[in-house]
Amino acid sequence: MLLNELESYIAQLLDISSFRDYCPNGVQVEGRAEIGKIVTGVSASMDVLQAASSAGADAVLVHHGYFWKNEQPVITGVKRKRIGHLISHDISLLAYHLPLDAHPTLGNNAQLANLLDFQCERLFGDQNIAAAGSLAEPMRLSALAGRIEEKLQRRPLVFGRDDAPIRRIAWCSGAAQDYLGAAIALGVDAFLTGEVSEQTVHLARESGVAFISAGHHATERYGIQALGAHLAEQFGLQHTFIDADNPV
Questions:
Q1: Are residues 91 and 140 located together in one domain of the fold?
Q2: CA dist 180 to 79, 123, 131, 166, 188, Å?
Q3: What CATH number is attached to the domain comprising 184?
Q4: Fewer Cβ in 10 A, N or C end of the chain?
C-alpha cells in the first residue's frame, strides 16, 4: 500500500484529531512511497531503527517518536543520527502517542487490561487517558505483583501491604503517576502505571491505596504490537516487532 494511505487509515482508526498531544501523530519522517514491510517498536531509538533497516522495513511505527513539545527544534547530535539513518535507508517513521494509549481495543491500556485480566468499567484523567475497573478475580497485592512480573517479564516496584485485598484497580501505561490522586478519589484498591515519583510513594502509603510501578517500556509494549498486527492482517503487510531492551 502507499504511505499516505497507511497514514490516513491509522489516523481514522486511532481518531488522532480528537487528542491534544505533545508531539505530532502520523508521519514524522517521510521515506519511500510504497509500504510492504513494517517494523514496530516502543521508541524510535537507534537500535530499533538499525533493526528495521537490517530487516528491510519500509516503515517504522512507534509509540515514542520525535519532535516533542518544548524540546529544542534543531536536528543535531543523536537526533541527527537517528533521522539521518531513516533518510539514508529511505524508511518512513510514523509515531502515535496518546491516541495509541487510549484506543479501546488496540491501545496500551486496553492491551494491558487483556494481559492482566482487568475489567474496564470507566475512563478518567485528562482526555480520558486512564482506566479503572476491577480484577477478574480479587487477589492479594502480593499475588497481583507476581502476575504482573510473570506477564510483563519485569519485577514491579510495589508500595502497599502484601496481604492487602485488591478488588478494584485503576491503570494507565507510561508515566501516569500524577493520576494517583484521581485514582484514590475513585475508591480503588490499587493503581498501576509505568513510573514512580518520590512524592507518589508517600501518597500511596498515607492513602492506603497500593501503587504499582511496572515500567514505562514494559507497560507500553503491547499497543504498538497490536497496531502492527492489525495492519498486517488488514492489508497483508509483513510485520515485525522489535523489543529493544529498556529496564525503565
A1: no
A2: 33, 14, 12, 16, 10
A3: 3.40.1390.30
A4: C
Print the domain residue range for 72. Answer: 3-98+220-241
Residue 143 and residue 149 in contact, taking contact as beta carbons nearer than 8 Å: no
C-alpha Rg value of the chain to the nearest Å: 19
> Considering the entire predicted model, what is its pTM?
0.97
Are 214 and 116 found together in one domain? yes
* In a shared domain, residues 22 and 77: yes
- Assign 3-class secondary structure to the chain: CEHHHHHHHHHHHHCHHHCCCCCCCEEEECCCCECCEEEEEEECCHHHHHHHHHCCCCEEEEEECCCCCCCCCCCCHHHHHHHHHHHHCCCEEEECCHHHHHCCCCCHHHHHHHHHCEEEEEEECHHHCEEEEEEEEEEEHHHHHHHHHHHHCCCCEEECCCCCEEEEEEECCCCCHHHHHHHHHCCCCEEEECCCCHHHHHHHHHHCCEEEECCHHHHCCHHHHHHHHHHHHHHCCEEEECCCCCCC
Domain presence at residue 23: yes
Residue 246 falls within a domain, yes or no?
no
Q: At 179, phi and psi to the nearest 5?
A: -85, 0
